[in-house]
Amino acid sequence: MHRMWLILFTAMVAGCGAPSFLVTPVANSNTLEEQEVESGEGWAPGKVAIIGVEGMLANVRSGGFLQASENPLSLFTQEMKRAEDDAAVKAVVLRVNSPGGTVTTSDAMFQIVQRFKAKTHKPVVAAAQEVDASGAYYVSCAADKIVAQPTSVVGSIGVIFETMEFSGTLDKLGIRADAIKSGTLKDMGSPFKALEPDERSVMQGMVEEYFGRFVTVVRSNRSVKESPAELTKYAQAGYGGVFSGRVFSGDRARELGLIDQTGLLEDAVKLAKRMGGAPHAAVVMYKRPYGYGGSIYADTRTPLPQANVLRLELPGERGLLPTGFYYLWQPGI
């Protein structure tokens, strides 16, 4: 019997139609390794560090089977700290390709960049790739300059809170959900019951609070070129300006003052070198030991073309966003 299994195993290894796997052992380490992706010129040319703001911005681990798990906020914090502690780093470029994420993670990343600038006085340039929307744009506002490609998707300044309700379906199935709660609003937003008017009012109030914070961030860090009359009516029906939640092309975003200039990632790097007083600086990125970086565009996480962004870097490959408050662009809703 054992011989039969041995023969079968040998046949599979020999390639009789069975799938094969190449397993490469790597060091199990959370350290960051610096990789030079563009060489500098001259003696002690300095460095420009490229740090990613990519995928769904959430304080959760992502990854799947045979994939390394990573927490976007944790990684971002570590990379910014690495750039902060390295005196040779003269400037940072945030490579942005994200539709946004949770309110709290977006705000945390924004504050990390602000504190980095205040402590080091090193310039930060945000470089928008395909998408720099909502929470990602919130983070970009902490940069000294924002560069986007003419065709980049920029903006979506707004807040969304989503919940689902299954009470009608449960009724048809003869299922009844009940909650024993300490207060009348403890289970607001539950998918097992409809939102009551007072619950909706509370949620709307929180959405407006977070939206007000977003508006303040934009107005404090960007010179928005929208008429005063437009700026005072963004809460009115029919408004389609900067604070309506819509997105703009990179060209239009420049006209509105949401970004400083259009250009490629290379142009953002050149700008960072000039601002950091290191025109001949090397360009570096930070990678885990299992990562790979062959150029300044390596490992960029491009949102897949689909009707929504619900599958972008979500924990556990969930089909729906967990209930919560998001600075997130969701086309198709």
Number of helices: 9
Shape: globular
Strand content: 15-25%
Elements, N to C (H/E): HEEHEHEHEEEHHHEHEHEE
What can you tell me about this protein's structure?
The chain has nine helices and eleven strands. It is α/β, with parallel strands linked by helices and 333 residues long. The protein has one domain: Alpha-Beta Complex (2-enoyl-CoA Hydratase, Chain A, domain 1). Strand 4 (124-133), helix 4 (135-140) and strand 5 form a beta-alpha-beta unit. It is globular and about 75 Å long. The N and C termini lie far apart (59 Å). Residues 300-319 have low confidence and may be disordered.
Quick summary of this structure?
The chain is an alpha/beta fold and 333 residues long.
Q: How are the secondary structure elements laid out?
A:
Layout: H1 2-13, E1 33-38, E2 47-57, H2 72-85, E3 89-102, H3 103-120, E4 124-133, H4 135-140, E5 145-148, E6 153-155, E7 160-162, H5 167-172, H6 197-221, H7 228-231, E8 247-249, H8 250-256, E9 261-262, H9 265-275, E10 282-287, E11 324-328
Parallel strand pairs: 2-3, 2-10, 3-4, 4-5, 4-6, 5-9
Antiparallel strand pairs: 1-10, 3-11, 6-8, 7-11
Helix pairs in contact: 2-3
Throw out a few tags for this protein:
333 residues, alpha/beta, 2-enoyl-CoA Hydratase, Chain A, domain 1, eleven-stranded mixed β-sheet, 9 helices, 20% strand
